[in-house]
Specification:
Elements: H1 3-12, H2 16-19, H3 32-80, H4 89-98, H5 105-114, H6 141-152, H7 160-163, H8 168-175, H9 184-195, H10 200-205
Helix pairs in contact: 1-3, 3-4, 4-6, 5-9, 8-9
């Protein structure tokens, strides 16, 4: 049973504890085959619901811990190379999750395009990604991360034809075609590997 199914099942059982207060307990001795079995069933369901909710709490905590570990890996990479975007790790992780992107893609692009914000676009503000050929300004680094992630994830109708349903290499070749920078995709993917392992989440979940 996956996480969403567990949550829906648990939610469907939340009302059960309130049913016990309306049970005609005084008639159990007169009709043990009905009320007794009903109470036992309700208690069993409540125990199962409690177990599922407890499992979800542990699962959610684990997911938050993993997000923090990925954010730390990004920030550590930026720090080790004296890059100004250090501290943006969690924002990059969150936007990658929202847009179904590899968690290392955004920081790797920023590192390749502007050395992590050190040499960001000069004529516009807060554009460490070279987005829009350095012709687009953002109100903040957070906004830049949100917009670039949304586009690369294929979730902007205006650009989805370039990025939707593509693997990492396909996304990068659309972002900066080989005709412009021959080995751009390979360069960014190398940085991704320097930041951390792709299966960091799977390794931690299964540990």
């Amino acid at each position: 049973m996956n996480k969403n199914n567990l949550i829906r099942f648990a939610q469907s059982l939340v009302f059960l504890p309130f049913m016990t207060g309306t049970m005609p307990l005084g008639n159990i001795a007169n009709n043990p085959t009905t009320e007794t079995f009903q109470i036992v069933f309700i208690q069993k369901q409540n125990i199962e619901a409690h177990g599922i909710l407890a499992f979800n709490q542990v699962f959610n905590q684990k997911a938050n811990d993993l997000k923090a570990k990925k954010a730390e890996a990004i920030d550590n990479y930026f720090k080790s190379h004296d890059m100004p975007l250090s501290g943006m790790g969690m924002k990059m992780v969150e936007e990658a999750l929202k847009n179904n992107l590899d968690w290392r893609l955004l920081p790797a692009i920023a590192a390749r395009e502007s050395t992590g914000g050190k040499f960001e676009c000069k004529k516009v503000k807060n554009n460490a990604f070279g987005w829009g050929s350095c012709k687009i300004s953002f109100d903040s680094n957070e906004e830049a991360i949100e917009i670039v992630a949304r586009n690369l994830g294929g979730n902007n109708p205006k650009t989805e034809k370039h990025y939707a349903d593509k693997d990492i290499k396909g996304i990068l070749q659309a972002y900066n075609p080989p005709s412009i920078v021959a080995r751009y995709a390979e360069q960014v993917m190398k940085i991704m590997n320097d930041i951390g392992a792709e299966d960091l989440i799977l390794e931690e979940v299964n540990s």
